[in-house]
Design goal:
Length: 293
């Protein structure tokens, strides 16, 4: 089995015919046909049904196609890495960062780390809820920084900071009782502004919500803050994102009954236990751990 044979096989599937695959791969049709035939002969399998005019995958062909496509993708990535290394391309560091972590003390460490390595290319994936860890699982990031949502024994993690979450709304949005507490009944039909889960593999539902309450979803904290300032809803939000607005009384704290109106959320440095970090990612991991001690 060779890469050329796999490329021919995948090309036939993706382009719908041997002729189209040959044109896309700049090969003759007979070369593509021979490559697929060699694969079938090597494994004694029939990859395409002979009962249809167009090439149609057999059950065995479907299984091989999934793995062949994944293998070719990895081979392409490895080839690109080889070219970058040969040309002296800059090393890359990919981090999955929870959207609630802007202005964390850990970002000072990242700033210092980047300053010492001006050649580094940084990829910062800003995610929410399950999306933070999903970037590790799909190998788009080597290190993650975020809360404990979804952490289990697949991950190695260490607390590096805390974020204060507060519940706020614009002045006049809802009135508290004589005891200063807002009741669930007052909020149930008012929009609770939430950030949508950015993950797609196993998205989480939100935990800190009013049962049966009205929910609005946005994709980032900037929009969430804008809706809050416009008096269009209420929400929990990191204190560091709204401290100036609270000081100017453009927003005010809400104390909601039986609700975590103010809480400290631990933030962790996270990696997959079974994944070997690149030298650059390992160096960043060690510096983050050193800064948190």
């Amino acid at each position: 089995m060779t890469n050329e044979q796999l490329r021919a096989f995948v090309g036939v599937v993706e382009h719908g015919s041997f002729r189209a695959a040959a044109a896309a791969l700049f090969k003759t049709q007979s070369t593509v046909s021979a490559a697929v035939a060699a694969l079938e002969q090597e494994f004694d399998l029939q990859l395409f049904s002979r009962e249809t005019y167009r090439p149609t995958l057999t059950i065995e062909g479907k299984a091989l196609f999934r793995e062949a496509k994944a293998l070719l993708s990895k081979a392409h990535d490895l080839e690109m890495l080889g070219h970058r290394l040969a040309q002296g391309k800059a090393p890359e560091l990919s981090i999955s960062l929870s959207a609630m972590c802007a202005h964390l003390p850990g970002l000072d460490t990242l700033k210092a780390f980047a300053k010492k390595r001006p050649e580094m290319r940084l990829h910062l994936h800003t995610e929410h809820l399950s999306g933070v860890l999903e970037q590790l699982l799909v190998e788009k990031a080597e290190v993650a920084i975020g809360p404990q949502v979804g952490l289990d024994d697949r991950y190695e993690f260490t607390e590096v900071a805390k974020v204060t979450q507060v519940t706020v709304a614009a002045p006049g949005f809802v009135d508290a009782g004589a005891d200063g507490v807002v009741r669930h009944a007052q909020l149930r039909n008012l929009p609770h502004i939430l950030i949508a889960d950015s993950g797609s593999l196993a998205p989480f539902d939100h935990v800190n919500v009013i049962p049966g309450g009205h929910r609005w979803y946005v994709n980032d904290f900037l929009m969430k803050k804008g809706l809050l300032l416009s008096g269009m809803g209420w929400a929990r939000i990191p204190l560091h994102m709204v401290d100036a607005e609270l000081e100017r009384e453009e927003l005010r704290f809400l104390q909601v009954e039986n609700f975590p109106s103010r809480s400290l959320v631990p933030i962790y440095l996270i990696r997959l236990r079974n994944q070997l970090l690149s030298p650059l990612a390992q160096e960043f991991w060690d510096e983050m751990l050193g800064a948190s001690l």
